[in-house]
TrEMBL record:
First and last residues shown, out of full length: 329 to 620 of 621
The organism of origin for this protein: Billgrantia ethanolica
Residues of the EAL domain: 24-278
Protein name per UniProt: EAL domain-containing protein
Length: 292
């Protein structure tokens, strides 16, 4: 075909560009098989309240590739979205997270944990999403009240009314909603109080460099005020230092997630870490209260 098109077209067969396309196609086909090959895993990062009690975890997807090692989500989630693979992968994530939640419910020490799961806009907009979710909840026996779906602002850009209706149907099941990466999207604020939201998550891009730039303090304080005034719980992600945590607490932030409290870890490590904590009233506190 290239010969027929004439020699002028040869410049389109840039070997470097072709290599990129081939690598991309290979990557996609490997991702397609990742689930069957048992290469997908969930890691869990704890979330804590103002008293440093663990209230739950966020499930974060990992792809353990036999050659490339662990591929970070930022490298494969976009490809999974472009290829629609995110629909089946997202299904696997929900299934795995709900099965884990159900297992914790049978363990008196872990029964209080909540589970936050990231949902891609494409996955959420599947016509059968509510049906799939309900089926997974019923099949696993997970308590829907302990399940929280993390949505991002860009979900509300195209058909906000349809999305709100879907959220309403899911809310009836008892499932909670968090608005993830808040402040990084392009949507209007007008939709905020019309959605059945429970939690606002301040994006880590404002939290991690909190004191490096005065604007970040203004943005974080404003998001906390906004959330509180709308009756939402506000959680900060990317909390890496005690100074950040203390500042956020003074601003009225309700909950925290970040390396200061724990990195995302495999299941065994999470359960090991929680074993060292005492469970009181459904929350985990350090066995020995640290002296001030
Ligand atoms: P996210 O939902 O905003 O998750 C928080 C990200 O911040 C995680 O990155 C977490 O490891 C990281 N993080 C948390 N605390 C800190 C901190 O103190 N310092 C630093 N440097 N980073 C922190 P991760 O696991 O690489 O995930 C990246 C993104 O990939 C997630 O951002 C989410 O958008 C997406 N993602 C992860 N798992 C899933 C999934 O199951 N489904 C979908 N659709 N997206 C997912
Ligand atoms: Mg998230
Ligand atoms: Mg986030
Ligand atoms: Mg984020």
């Amino acid at each position: 075909q290239s010969k027929q098109a004439g020699r002028n077209t040869w410049r389109f067969f840039d070997p470097a560009m072709q290599a990129v396309a081939v690598r991309r196609a290979l990557f996609e086909s490997e991702l397609r098989q990742a689930e069957q090959r048992d290469e997908l895993a969930l890691h869990y990062q704890i979330q804590v309240d103002r008293s440093a009690r663990v209230t739950g975890v966020e499930a974060l997807l990992r792809w353990h590739h036999p050659e490339y090692g662990t591929v970070p989500p930022y490298d494969f989630i976009p490809i999974a979205e472009q290829s629609y693979l995110i629909v089946s992968i997202g299904d696997w994530v929900l299934q795995t997270a709900c099965a884990q939640l159900a297992e914790w419910q049978t363990n008196p020490h872990l029964a209080g944990l909540s589970m936050a799961v990231n949902i891609s806009p494409l996955q959420f907009q599947q016509p059968e999403f509510v049906y799939r979710l309900e089926k997974i909840i019923v099949a696993t026996g997970a308590n829907p009240e302990r399940l929280k779906l993390e949505l991002t602002e860009n979900l509300f850009m195209e058909e906000p009314d349809a999305v709100r209706e879907t959220m309403r149907r899911i809310r009836i099941l008892g499932v909670k909603f968090a608005l993830d990466d808040f402040g990084t999207g392009y949507s209007s604020l007008g939709y905020l109080n019309r959605l059945p939201l429970d939690q606002l998550k301040i994006d880590q891009s404002f939290v991690r460099p909190l004191f490096e730039d005065g604007a970040n303090e203004v943005i974080c304080a404003s998001i906390i005020d906004l959330g509180r005034n709308l009756g939402l719980e506000v959680i900060a992600e990317g909390v890496e230092t005690q100074a950040h945590r203390d500042w956020l607490e003074r601003q009225g932030c309700h909950a925290y997630q970040g390396y200061l409290f724990g990195r995302p870890v495999p299941l065994e490590a999470l359960e090991e870490n929680l074993r060292g904590l005492v469970c009181t009233a459904g929350n985990w506190v350090p066995a020995v209260t640290p002296a001030n």
